[in-house]
Amino acid sequence: MNSNRLPRLKYHSPKTIEEVLKIKQTFADDTVILAGGTDVIPMLKRRNVSCGHVINIKRIRPLKQISFDEKEGLRVGAAVTLREVADHPVISNAYPLMGKAVQSVAYNQIRNMGTLVGNICVDNKCTYFNQSAFWWQSRPDCFKRDGDCCYVIKGGKQCYALSAGDTVSALIALEASLAIVGPEGEQRLPLEDFYTGDGKKPQKLDHNGLVTAVLIPPPISGWKDGFLKKSQRGSVDFAIATLSIRLRNNGTGLEDVRIALNGVSSKPIRAKGAEQYLMGKPLDDETISEAARILLGETTPLSSIGTSVQVRRRTIEAMFTDLIETIEG
Amino acid sequence: MKEYRLIGKRLPRIDARDKVKGRALYTDDISMPGMLYGLILRSPYAHAKIVKIDTSRALKLPGVKAVVTGEDTAKVKFGVISRSRKFIDEYPLAVDKVRFIGEEVAAVAATDPDAAMEALDLIEVEYQELPAVFDPEEAQKPGAPQIHEHAPGNISREHHMKKGDPDRAFKECDLVREDTFTTQSAIHAYMEPRAALASWDLTDKLMVYTSTQTPYYVQQHLGRTLGMNPDNIRIIKPFVGGGFGGKSDGLSAVEFSAALLSKHAGRPVKIVCSRDEEFTAARRKHPASITMKTGVKKDGTIVARQSRAILDGGAYCSLGPLTTVLMGTFQTLPFRFEHFQYDGYRIYTNKPPCGAMRGHGGPQVHFAQDAQLDMIAEELDLDPVEMALKNGLKTGDESAAGFKIVSSGFAECLRKVSEAADWQDKKRTEKNDPKKAYGIGLGCGGFPSGAGFYFNKTTSAHSSVIIKAGEGGGLSVLTGASDIGQGSDSVVCQIVAEVLGLPIEDIHITSADTEITPPDMGTYSSRVTVAAGNAALNAAKAAREALFKVVADKFEASPDDLLAEEQKIFVKGSPEIYTSFVDAVNLYQKKNQGSPLVVKGSYNSPDPLSPTYSFGAYICEVEVDLRTGELTVLRYTVGHDCGQPLNPMSVEGQIEGCISMGMGYAISEDLRFDGGQTLNPSFLGYAMPTANQMPKIEITHVVTDDPHGPFGAKETGEGSLDPVAPAIVNAVYNATGVRIKDLPITSGKILQGLKDKDR
Ligand SMILES: Cc1cc2nc3c(=O)[nH]c(=O)nc-3n(C[C@H](O)[C@H](O)[C@H](O)COP(=O)(O)OP(=O)(O)OC[C@H]3O[C@@H](n4cnc5c(N)ncnc54)[C@H](O)[C@@H]3O)c2cc1C
Ligand code: SF4
Questions:
Q1: For A117, which of A29, A78, B59, B569 could close a Cys bridge (C-beta 3.0–4.6 Å)?
Q2: Contacts of B596 (CB under 8 A, 6+ apart)
């Protein structure tokens, strides 16, 4: 049972982004980024990831910053912790949706260490995959371990591990994007487009890339929003679903709406079908339940230990109804 | 009820400060010069022959000092219930065969933990896989894989009990119900994983620090498996972070491997299990299938009970043979019926062995019993509380399994909780919200305050306490009773201090060190307060008698006229005639050629079943989201009769802990298996309730003066668990009309039930 031990690896703690890129170029896919480490350290110990080089990014000054500009919006560096985000006055004043989402991640100790960008980059979760090396001795490897079977969907042809970061639905609803730095310089990518939908390799980030910040457009008045997370025991667990809604209502109908979910599929979902349906409609019981039905069709909840597909589906529907109702007061 | 100085008072634990500040030393906190770190290699197969083990590569790894396998052992099996040879079925390190995933195959010791972990990967084991069986029904079928040679049909234990004539009695009943209930695999999840530190001296004596509930048994079983006189083994129990029955097997591979590695390496060896190992390979609770048939009269009087239980035992006996018996006897509490039959079968399967877990068979059968009585009450249009009142065991009764009730506060528990929870009104709460439903339910319990027999053959008393007086007025109390966090050290000190009129700070307790402390059965079966408490009481009385004798001589008074209070011994009615406690001790020594004041007290249960029984009634209130099946436990109202609570804070702590554990059992704790492999071996996967799920709890102490308990005290550590789960089950039914017969109550089952109902 060697599940407690970190593999032999070289630990790098560069002070600049350039150094990170250099190390990455040298060791290519034998590297892994360490931010708060709350996800990656357990994964290394369990041998869910194996690599020879760990690059700590917490000593890089510029990555530790949160900046806000009325025109540019908000920029949160990749080494900023969830705690720092939650405690920041701009976030509680101008981005309450994001504040709520951040507070829903795990518990205090994890939020003290874990970063916002780490939460965005967190690997997809599966009750099978996230087991120790000893555990895996008892059965053949699944797709995510480069094997050729899946235990969640028996007979499945690919990996269905669920996208997990609890802050992601809120950030997508806020139309956030990522700043990604690679050998060709900085590139911006809408967060929505960052995810592949492949449980095995869920993010569009090659071994050369480093996410340096998450960027959120400036807040616009007239929008109302809300966030909900449901999990088996409250916040400790990964979510059955997280749901974020932003909307603008002119009294007769919806002028604009953003609906995003996470935890319900191999990638975060922007529920465009439900959004389209709702446009211009008044929020009565009938539209809400029809929208919930459409929304459900846009997710692919799977069964996991403790929570069946049926429960997941009903929970998503109920969350949607409840959240719309709270937003509308 | 008599007022005492310390008994019945809300006193902080004697070790509370040390624990809170991190000063209390647990096994993993202890180190020795030259100490090595040990680890255990476990089987990845559920059932396999061990063809060959090659340790040579591991031994060559720098830092590795010893590697041991079954071949290095005396090949002696152990089993905690060593009275019967059939129950001695397990090698501490596997010999020839492995029977579950996680079974101990080899162990290594190295100068640092990393080298030890690396060495594990270098041990080459060649296995030949054998067909395995995981389901107890399948395991009984002809042609099923045989797990042990001595157990045809994989029957590990069967137990049959009969009283009266249930078949005839059922015919005379107005209503007979038969239902099958099933329960899942749950695990103790004690806070401190098992750990042991072993070292040998040059005269071949062995010393082991270990996280155990039963130091005396560890001494005996280590002696047996290592082929040495147990008297040459010293077991020290430091602070222990919980056990709940998971550390009461008398021996584990952890202690054995540490001892053997230390012998081979010639250096101390410490092994600390990881949480993965605990979830994967440690003992656990028996999953059971219980078919229960109960017959009643129109007025709700229970007449007869017939039940059959199939226990999924896992690969070895552990304490399971006893669980098989207790699932029969415990269902005769807390209700009276004349006709009873029980047939219990414990079946071997290729899964981790199941043993004792808090309540020991009780939670399974009380779930069945209380759920079924709730159904019966509904069919007869009776109030469950009234029906429980009608059938509850009273002082002087004997249960169908022969439990002699010497004090029962059950009726009072029921009356108090139904009033405090506003039962009559609340159970009629209207259900007209399509989203949420409120429900209320009753759970009942009764539990022995300790079994009255050892698992091995011995002439030792069940509990003994030695008191040794110091020259400064303090007392050393030596007991083999093991405080594993439940607070028995504090209770023993409280009792001794009360009797001798001393402040609790003057009592210095050692528990337990087999070199120093007398034999004691250990911490299980809810026996410590009654057994060790009585032994302490007897020892304290002996000390008082010895001191009173010399003081009486001095004052030319009768010992009967003396009192010990406030560190003084004085003549009743004349407080000015006194001697201080210190002076009395020194006077004693002077009168006895300087020999120290050393006294002892022992206790044996007067009844092999148990000296006495606790009772409880729990009312639970829940809310169910009818759309999603989400269940929220809102509130528990508890009435508990533990005789005289010696320290109400401790009793409340046990009840609150039981509610948390019982809630987990009812709604979310579930070890899932696939092919004998534990699918959720972590705290993230095994959903124990968190602090924010805890409901409001209101506790009423129902005080009865028990004739056997020390100062009238009875147990509270296990009986408090039994009613917790069924109270939720019944509340969910009250809320939704969905009757759960299969634990745990997941949201999925509630949704399914609602759907079936609509059909
Ligand atoms: C007990 C427990 C409970 C948890 N519960 C939750 C929960 O309820 N909700 C939830 O969302 N998460 C949960 N997590 C997961 C995790 O703790 C959080 O998602 C956290 O926010 C991750 O942040 P981190 O900084 O610690 O990430 P790290 O572990 O440092 O990194 C996570 C991943 O992102 C990559 N990465 C990090 N930064 C960058 C970057 N700048 N560029 C490129 N790649 C990067 C890493 O290489 C790694 O693969 C839980 C974890 C544990 C151990
Ligand atoms: S969902 Fe992915 S990680 Fe999970 S078992 Fe299937 S392939 Fe493996």
A1: A78
A2: B468, B469, B589
In terms of Cα–Cα distance, which of B120, B103, B112 is closest to B283? B103
* Nearest Cα residue to atom 4 of ligand 1: A106
In chain A, the largest separation of any two C-alpha atoms, in whole Å, equals 63
- Let me know whether B517 and B585 are in one domain: yes
pTM of the model: 0.96
Cis-peptide into B448, omega within 30 deg: no
Give dist(CA A61, CA B610) in Å, integer: 68
Pair B14, B496: CB distance under 8 Å: no
Q: Which residue lies with its CA nearest to atom 8 of ligand 2?
A: A142
Residues lining ligand 1, Cβ inside 6 A: A 32-40, 42, 57, 78, 82, 105-106, 110, 113-115, 117-119, 121-123, 164-166, 205, 210-211, 235, 238; B 684
φ and ψ at residue B26, rounded to 5 degrees: -95, 170
A127 inside 8 A of chain B by CB: yes
**Are residues B598 and B613 part of one domain?**
no
| Residues of chain A contacting residue B44, judged by C-beta atoms under 8 Å apart | 134, 137-138
Half-sphere exposure of B632 (CA within 13 A, CB side): 14
Question: What length does chain B have?
Answer: 759
Mean pLDDT of B239-249: 97
Of B603, B636, B668, the position where a domain reaches its end is: B603
**What are the DSSP E strand ranges found in B184-317?**
195-200, 206-210, 233-236, 269-272, 288-296, 302-314
Taking contacts as CB-CB distances below 8 angstroms, the residues of chain B near A234 are 690, 692-693
B424 CA from centroid of ligand 1 (Å): 50
User: Cβ–Cβ of A315/B280 closer than 8 Å?
Assistant: no
Q: Which of B45, B120, B687 sits opposite A233 (nearest CB)?
A: B687
Give me the amino acid identity at B201. D
Contact residues for B297 (Cβ-Cβ < 8 A; gap 6+): B173, B174, B303
Q: Considering its fold, how many domains does chain B have in total? A: 3
CA distance B745 to B629: 10
Q: Are B612 and B709 in contact (CB under 8 A)?
A: yes
CATH superfamily of A224-328: CO dehydrogenase flavoprotein, C-terminal domain (3.30.390.50)
Distances (CA, A) of A176 to A86, A101, B57, B368, B520: 17, 14, 54, 53, 66
State how far the Cα of B204 lies from the Cα of B200, in Å rounded to an integer.
6
Instruction: Suggest the residue from B28, B626, B628, B668 to mutate for an interface test with chain A (most A CBs closer than 10 A).
Output: B628
Closest among B499, B488, B508 to B543, alpha carbons compared: B499
- Has residue B532 been placed in a domain? yes
pLDDT over 90 (residue B249): yes
Tell me: do B655 and B559 sit in the same domain. no
* Positive or negative torsion for Cα B214, B218, B220, B225: positive
> Which of the four pLDDT bands, split at 50, 70 and 90, describes residue B744?
very high
Q: What is the mean pLDDT of residues B410-422?
A: 98
B75 and B210 in a single domain? The answer is yes
Reduced DSSP (H G I as helix, E B as strand, rest coil) percent helix, strand, coil of chain A, to 5: 35, 25, 40
Q: Are B472 and B438 in a shared domain? A: no
What is the rounded distance in angstroms from the CA atom of residue B503 to the CA atom of residue B374?
49
Over residues A281-296, mean pLDDT: 95
Question: What's the rounded Cα separation, in Å, for the pair B729 and B387?
Answer: 18
Q: What does DSSP assign to residue A6?
A: P
**pLDDT tens column, A95-152:** 999 999 999 999 999 999 999 999 999 999 999 999 999 999 999 999 999 999 999 9
Q: Which residue range is the domain that position B52 belongs to?
A: 31-130+191-242+247-281
Q: How far is CA B448 from the centre of its chain?
A: 12
| Ligand 1 center–CA A45 separation, angstroms | 15
> Are residue B62 and residue B122 in the same domain, yes or no?
yes
